Each structure stands twice: as C-alpha cells, then as structure tokens.
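Quick start: read one record
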Amino acid sequence: MSDLRHSAPGGPPSKSFRLDRQRGKLMGVCAGIANYFGIDTTLVRAGFVIATLVGFGSPILIYLAIGLIAD
C-alpha cells in the first residue's frame, strides 16, 4: 500500500491540511481549505459567509477553532 504522507522525492505530493497565511485574509483558514480541496478560495469564503448567515453564527466558532488548532 502506498502512504501519501511519506512520499518519495519526485513522487506525488503529500495531501495534508495547512493554513495558507500568504493568500489568507484573516487566519488563512479558507485559503488552506481551498488548497486542500483544489477549489477557488472565493468559493470557500462565500460558503463560510452563507453558512454563518444560515447557521446563526456557529461557523464562526468552527473557523476560529480551525485557525487556532491547525498548523
């Protein structure tokens, strides 16, 4: 079995979640999620805004938890 976390040089990149502080606006959470899933950062940010409006603010706590725990 292949283990993506311990890839050889020149092999496939390891797929692990990292905050992207260079492209991030606040903590880099949305940019990190976008990098991990290979989608546009704007879509993730819009998703968080919509989820915050629909979820009565609970996604804000999830965002802060990810920002403090990750990396």
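Residues 1-14 have pLDDT under 50 and may be disordered.
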